[in-house]
Amino acid sequence: MIFGKKQAGRFVPAEARIPVVTESSVTPESEVREKFKRVKPLKDISVKERGWTLDVLNAIRRLGKTEFSTTDAYAFERELEQLHPDNRNIKAKIRQQLQELRDRNLLLHLDRNRWRLP
């Protein structure tokens, strides 16, 4: 199953969905600002690379667990290949994007090939 199309309207990662009002309940301003601060580093990634980064982040979210291995992320290799047909080295790109997510504090590196969503 493809989880998005290669276009500007990609799926927004869970971290970037910041509720301001939920069921008539207003989220405290400090909480909204803190959540925004966590995703703000995504804006510094070029538009071309941001697509890859968000695709990998969304794939990881679909694993349904907070801790995972690089091999778990490789399970999305075919889907990512369909989304990015010009890339011939998908596994290396997945590893690169895991590191990018780590550098942006959207992922924690626990150990060799072990990762955790914050």
Short description:
It contains five helices and five strands. By secondary structure, the chain is of the alpha+beta class. It has a single domain, classed as Arc Repressor Mutant, subunit A (Orthogonal Bundle), CATH 1.10.10.
Can you walk through the features of this model?
- With 118 residues, the chain is of the alpha+beta class.
- It has a single domain (14-116), classed as Winged helix-like DNA-binding domain superfamily/Winged helix DNA-binding domain (Arc Repressor Mutant, subunit A, Orthogonal Bundle).
- Helices cover 45% and strands 12% of the residues.
- It has five helices and five strands, in the order ββααβαααββ.
- The strands form two sheets. A three-stranded antiparallel β-sheet has the order 3-5-4. Strands 1-2 form a two-stranded antiparallel sheet.
- β1 (21-22) and β2 form a beta hairpin.
- α2 crosses α5 (90-103).
- The longest helix is centred in the middle third of the chain and has 16 residues, at 47-62.
